[in-house]
Inverse folding.
């Protein structure tokens, strides 16, 4: 029973890491786009 319970948890943690990584990348891209937009507004 213990072995069966450990395996899905590993898969879940991998999914969590993937989701967290993609979310961080998404936030990073958003901040870059907003910074670019802000710099363009400042130039105007």
């Amino acid at each position: 029973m213990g072995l069966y319970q450990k395996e899905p948890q590993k898969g879940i943690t991998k999914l969590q890491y993937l989701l967290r990584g993609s979310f961080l990348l998404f936030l990073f891209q958003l901040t870059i786009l907003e910074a670019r937009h802000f710099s363009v507004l400042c130039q105007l």
